[in-house]
Amino acid sequence: MTRTADIIVIGGGMAGIGAGARLSATSDVIVLERESQPGYHSTGRSAAMFIENYGGPVIRQLTKASRKSLEERNEFWPDPVLGPRGVLYMAQPGEEDALDELIAGSDGSIGHVTVAEACEKVPLLKPEALVRGGYEPDAEDMDVNAILMGFRRLLKANGGEIACSNEVSGLERRDGAWHVTTDGGTYSAAIVVNAAGAWVDVIAGLAGLDPIGFAPCRRTAAIVPTSGVDISSWPTFTVMNESFYFKPEGGKLLVSPADETEVEPHDAFADDMALAEGIDAFGKVVDIEVTRVEHTWGGLRTFSPDRAHVIGFDPRTEGFFWFAGQGGYGIQSAHGGAMLVAGLIHDNDVPAPLAEQGLTRASVAPDRFLG
Ligand SMILES: Cc1cc2nc3c(=O)[nH]c(=O)nc-3n(C[C@H](O)[C@H](O)[C@H](O)COP(=O)(O)OP(=O)(O)OC[C@H]3O[C@@H](n4cnc5c(N)ncnc54)[C@H](O)[C@@H]3O)c2cc1C
User: Fold this and answer.
1) d(CA 120, CA 362)
2) What is the rounded distance in angstroms from the CA atom of residue 352 to the CA atom of residue 342?
3) Which of 19, 150, 175, 249 has the least CB density, counted as fewest CB within 10 Å?
4) Which of 200, 269, 301, 335 most suits a substitution to test ligand 1, by most atoms within 8 Å of the C-beta?
5) Which atom of ligand 1 lies closest to the CA of 14?
6) How far is the CA of 108 from the centre of ligand 1 (A)?
7) For the domain that residue 364 is a member of, what is the CATH number?
């Protein structure tokens, strides 16, 4: 028997659950997820950083609009989901121009720091390896699971449904609705939201649409013990050539080589070679000898051709809505993105908190890639 709804969301990561939660305020929503639980892919593998000066203009607008929602406490997010951390950006010799550009583009939210000031924040830095830096005090840690669970509670409270173990394998438009085939059943709705992360172009193909050209890119991370050094108050740290970054994580360091290797969508795993290079770059700047790593993982950061989100109805067919290209910012921008999806679908408009940030419909529309 076919289950019908107003809107079917494909993908149960942060994007799909967040959009589903906002849409469920006034629509009957079902989220279809292939895995046995939500958040298994990119969402469950992030570094959990909230950094307003990360990414291009659209990402910054969505992230800034997200902050207010992330700071609000209510029945869905009863406990704080942001925690103070800060981020230190350091220039190695030859990277000064990139640092100056970053600081100049931050509207005063990144301040200059000397190497001595940076060493006060991270005492095990090697000062001879660095020239100068910038510090963004308002960068935060995020509780990714709590954010996802809050969206999940909101969706359920509104009568929405998450159907896990339902891999979408067919999409057909007939009689004014999308008919969706999965290995768990059949569904239909006038609107489908494509929030399938690394698989968004695959989903478009099932609907008979040519791909937009998304690039899933692997990123590796590792947990490194620090042999008794108290690193709990250290900020997140990166160098301007992005050869590595680190942040405190449960008394240890999360170190990433910041790799970005384009791959086919798959269940990603760590790239050991990239990790070795990242740890080598880390060792040139930080006086910690990494003799072992405790845990490694990989995940996919999926970018559109201009690296900004794609949010809007596809002009080539009826009722096919893209919520895609979250890249390396899909958690910090999730509230803003979900708000925009609901605004465009329900009100055919950009919601005020996003319009105030300067976000336009055209800057995120799929039309920009469809000539
Ligand atoms: C190492 C790493 C560090 C990161 N750090 C940060 C960070 O600090 N801050 C930040 O904001 N972001 C970060 N990100 C990026 C962030 O994790 C992603 O942007 C975000 O999780 C994307 O969410 P999503 O819902 O689009 O994708 P996903 O979480 O991958 O969800 C997509 C879902 O669609 C499902 N799906 C696919 N095909 C089908 C189908 N046919 N049928 C049904 N379901 C399907 C998949 O099973 C999957 O669950 C990081 C990413 C990585 C890998």
Assistant:
1) 45
2) 12
3) 175
4) 301
5) 25
6) 31
7) 3.50.50.60
Ligand 1 center–CA 298 separation, angstroms: 11
Q: How confident is the model at residue 227 (pLDDT cuts 50, 70, 90)?
A: confident
Residue-level length of the chain:
371
Mean pLDDT computed over 236-256:
97
In the sheet with 168-174, reading across from the earlier edge strand, the strands are 2-4, 185-189, 177-182, 168-174
Q: What domain range includes position 286?
A: 87-137+215-303
Using the 3D structure, point to which of 252, 279, 303 is the last residue of a domain. 303
Q: Distance from the CA of 42 to the center of ligand 1, in angstroms? A: 3
- Of 285, 303, 321, the residue that ends a domain is 303
Atom of ligand 1 nearest to the CA of 329: 11
* Secondary structure of residue 275 in the 3-state scheme: helix
For residue 127, is pLDDT > 90? yes
* Residue pLDDT, tens place only, 13-45: 999 999 999 999 999 999 999 999 999 999 999
Q: How far is the CA of 228 from the centre of ligand 1 (A)?
A: 33
Residue 196 CB-half CA count within 13 A? 26
Are 221 and 149 within one domain? no
Q: Residue 189: its pLDDT value, please?
A: 98
Residues 287 and 223 both lie in one domain: yes
Pocket of ligand 1 (CB under 6 A): 10-16, 32-35, 40-43, 45-49, 167-168, 195-199, 219, 221, 299-301, 326-332
Tokens 């050991």 belong to residue: 272
Confidence of residue 371 (pLDDT cuts 50, 70, 90): confident
